[in-house]
Amino acid sequence: SVGACRRVRHALPSAWDSRSLSGAALRCLVPGMDTRTDVCPRPAPPPAILVRQASTEAALSSASDDVDLADFTVVKSGHFWPQKIRFSTSQISPMACGTVLLFAKDLYIIEMGADVQMMGVIGVVLSIWGPCCYPVAGYVLERNLLGAWFPWDAWGRRAPWFLTHSLVLAVATAAVYMPPILDSTFLCLWFLACGVVLCWVLAVLFTCFEAARTEMYPTKEERSEVEAVVRITSAVGVALGIMPQLFVAAAGATFAIRTTVSLLYIGMALLSLVSLRIFRLARQEHDSAKVDSFASEVLSVAKIPACRHVMVYGLVEAVFMTVILQGAVYYLTLVDGLSGTRRSIFLAAAVVVVALALLIALPLWTQFFRVRRPNVNTNLVCGTACLLGVPLGPLSLLLGRALPPGCGFLLYVFVLQVAMVGQSFWKCLALGWVVDEDCHASHGRRREAVFVGVLSFVGAIGRAMAVGLVINGLGAVGLQFEFCDQVCDGLRVPCKELCERRNIEGQPEAVKVYIQVLYYGVMPVCQALVAILAIAFPIRGERLDAIYRNQAQIFKPTSLDLPKPANEQKGLNGVRDQTPPVAQQAPSERKSLP
């Protein structure tokens, strides 16, 4: 009997402190332990804890000695799968238009004759500007600067920014492929102007999404469900964004083709506005007065150890993923010797292979994450799966040498995608846990966008480093391309084929060696570091349980259809007059938080 009581006391949520129960009440929690009483008193849960009383009582009435009651205090957002899918479509437009920044500079060089060295400088400038946009975007989102035109009670903090910047995204993306002059110098300046606008717009849109997800969905389980859908919508966005550019690469950068591509991008940029209604539900109570100056907020966030851990992880992962994407065209062109239509076919096939690997691995990881597993170290599981894929990437490229050109690269892409699917889930969840702890530390303070901005800043630096590693590195070892459409203007088709063949065969041997060093050496090291950082993440065990308890106390589901209670007294931006969460109570009152 004593052992059973101890097990029940350990399983009870800490908010229901079993030390406050009488002996009879504790014995009655386990059926069959004490039949001497007909009345079994139960403690009333604190009013701030959001539990389903009926299901809790039913579970207690049939509990066994090994019951785990931790799941009974898990709070829900109230969103069903249709709402989560609709919210996830917000990633289609920025992902589609973001590929323009990633691939357009290569088409400017290869297809339109932009100056290679000057484009390298432009890439450096955008690489500096792009990361700087993220922390600024995160800060202005928290200041609610558009609140005068979009009231918080109806729009929240994220929806106004998502709406306005989606419209700007459509204009800026369409302009990229419509330069008025095809001069090599003017092309670089035009790309710079469009790139400056796109960097800011994409920073705002991505920050809106990540901040809204953390705000609307309180636990790992719901955030992982959204992430599962986001993996699909992001892949759809990337595929939609790449296809028009493959068309340009295959058919040439004529005016008619560029006009068609620009019109397509306008439609893509406006597609994600179907998720605007869900963004308006991101209205958790907050006090904007608790957001200090830009410098103090950024420094405050950067001082949190768990946040610094995620920052290092994001830097390494960004380098790893961007080199793979950025180097794909150069690997297929300069190592496998593909050009024109064949190169475009294999790039399209790579997109299909990524989707196939995603469909294989996604259901497994989704089921793993969407169920709470208190005794499983999620960090260890994700890191180990990633670590197992480290030797398989280079091995697939080596095996590909016995296959037709391009097939080895497809095998490489498949292996990496399977190994890295779990890491996309883990990164989302780690960010959410860091933000949750910060919200619990000060009642009314919510700065999800600041965290997202700082972490995205580090990730953008990693992507910028990767772009410089590929573009500037290739330029340094002697890469040069002719604009074959311009050279062969008015001539027969064989002229362009011969020109593209000269572009491949006329490169120095150091160019091919440099690309192979990236894929055989730099990439495996980055992947190993990603796995180790995931395994070593400090939020786990009891520290993670404390996050669940506090989330159950402070989270309030929102709806556009339900009016707010008349007796609810709100202060600035919806902050209620209520008892502070567990983390903010006085030490004498704080029983549930370790």
Write a structural description.
- It is a single chain.
- By secondary structure, the chain is mainly α.
- The protein is built from 23 helices and no strands.
- Helix 5 runs parallel beside helix 8, helix 8 packs antiparallel against helix 11 and helix 15 packs across helix 18.
- The radius of gyration is 27 Å and the shape is globular.
- The relative contact order is 0.14.
Question: What is the C-alpha radius of gyration, as a whole number of Å?
Answer: 27 Å
Number of helices: 23
**Terminus-to-terminus distance:** 27 Å
Mean pLDDT level: 79
The number of E-state strands comes to 0
Portion of residues in helices? 55-70%
Are there runs of 5+ residues with pLDDT below 50, and where? Answer: 1-72, 562-572, 574-594
Secondary structural class = mainly alpha
Short overview:
The chain has 23 helices and no strands. It has 594 residues and is mostly helical.
Main traits of this protein?
0% strand, 594 residues, disordered N terminus, globular, disordered C terminus, mainly alpha
List the helices and strands and how they pair.
Layout: H1 2-11, H2 23-28, H3 53-61, H4 81-88, H5 92-110, H6 116-143, H7 152-155, H8 159-176, H9 184-216, H10 220-251, H11 255-271, H12 276-279, H13 294-302, H14 305-335, H15 340-369, H16 378-388, H17 392-400, H18 407-441, H19 448-476, H20 484-487, H21 493-505, H22 509-535, H23 542-554
Helix pairs in contact: 4-10, 5-8, 5-9, 5-10, 5-11, 6-9, 6-19, 8-9, 8-11, 9-19, 10-11, 10-15, 10-18, 14-18, 14-19, 14-22, 15-18, 16-18, 16-22, 17-18, 18-23
